[in-house]
Amino acid sequence: MLSLDESIVGFFGGYGSGKSRGGAIWLTLELLKKPGLPALIGAPTNNILTSATLQEFEAVAGPIIVGQNKNEGWYLLRTGSIVWYRSLDRPKSLEGINAGLGWLDEATLCSREGWRVFNGRVRLPGADGRSRIACTGTPVAGTWCQDEFDSCREDRGFVRVDSRENIHLSANVISTWLGSMSARDADAYIRGFWLRQSGRVFAEFDRKRHLIDYSPDPSLTVDIGVDFGLKYPGVVFTQWIPDGRFLHRGILPSSIVVFDEIVRDNLTTEGLGRLIAQRVPETGKLRLGRIACDPAGASHSSSASEHGGTLDVQALINGIRDEYTEREVSHPEYLFGKGTGELRSRATGVEKMRTLLLNGHEQTFLWFSNKLIETKSERGVIKAMEGHIYKDGTQREVRGGEHQYDHILDALRYRIRHYFLRGARSY
Q1: Bridge partners of 117?
Q2: Which of 2, 17, 185, 248 could cross-link 181 (Cys pair, CB 3.0–4.6 Å)?
Q3: In this predicted model, what pLDDT tens digit does every residue of 342-381 receive, in sequence order?
Q4: What residue spans define the domains of the chain?
C-alpha cells in the first residue's frame, strides 16, 4: 500500500488482515511529508470511528499528537497539521473542512453519498501538489468501492490482503471463520477478493456435487420442515447424519440429507398432515422425528375456513393422527411450533444454507437425494436451489413470482435452523 502512487488508493482484505492499521500508517507517513497539511479521517459510524479507527491512528501517530479537541473532532500534530475526524452517517458534519489528505476506514460500509462528500472535502495540494485519499475495508460486492477500485479506473491504486497473511491471527481463529461462512463469502471476508454479484441466491449449489444416491437410514429419524399455506404449502424430509457412517461416500458427520419433499397446490393443512404420515407410515421401517415449522403456526391459521379456525400446528397433527392409529403424535418430540426470532430470520437461514452447501474449507454438509430431480413441480427444492435469484444489482431476493420458491425454501430453512437450535450442529 505504501508503494502506491495514485491519488486514491485502496487497501482491502479479509477480517483481521491489518487494513485499518495500514491506513493509519499510510496517513501518518503522508502527513510527515508536508508539515502543516490538514487531513481528514472518516468512518461509517461514530461507534466504528471512536472504537476502532481513531484507536488505530493514535497507536501509530501517538508520538506526534500534541493535542485533541473531542468536541470539535480534531487532533493537533507536532508537525502543525490538524487532523479532523468525522462519522459519515451524517455527511453534512464534514461541511467547512478543507484537507489535503484523507483516510476513509471501513469504506465499504459508507454510503455513496458519504463518499462523495468526503472526497469533495479532500482538495488541498499535498507534498507533490496533489491531494490524496486512502480507503480501507473489507471488499463487498455491489458497493461504490468496487466501482472505484475493481474496475480499472484511472488514478486508482489497489492492494488486496488475505487474513491468513497476518501472523498475529491464530490458525484456529482462521479455521473457525472459514467453517462458519460460505465459500463465496470466505473469498471476500478471508481471502480479500472482490466478488462479482451472482444472480443466484444459492450460487454454491452444484448438481454434480450435491446430488447423491440416498436411501433413508431406518436407524435415523426422519425430521421434517413445514411451511404452511393453503395455496402453496411445502414440506422437506431430512435425516441428520450424526457420525461417519457414510464417510466413505464423502458425507461428513453432522451432515443433513434432504431425500423427499411435498410440493402440492391447494391442500388443507390436515391433508398435508395425512400426506406426511403416508410418506413415513406408522407401520413402516422409518420413524417420524421432529417437525420444524414457522413459529407463527402455533398461534395462526393460514386456512381457517378449511379447518374451522384450528391452528396450523394442531391441524397438521390432526392430519397425521388420521393415519397414525397407535403412535402418539402430540408428544413434544414431534412438534416444533414455538421458537426464537433467530429461527424466523430469513437472512440468517439463507446464509446457513449457503454455508452448509459449501463453506470456506470447501466442505459440504447439505446434500440432496437425486430422486428429488424427478419432482415435476416447478416449486421443488432443486428447482429452488437453481432458480432462486437476487433482484438485479442487489443482494435482495426475488420473493414470490411465477415459481413461488419461498415455501419450499422456508420449509428447509426451518428444518436447518431447528438443527442448529437443538445443538445438533456445533457451528
Answers
A1: none
A2: 185
A3: 556 777 888 889 999 999 999 999 999 999 988 777 789 9
A4: 8-189, 207-422
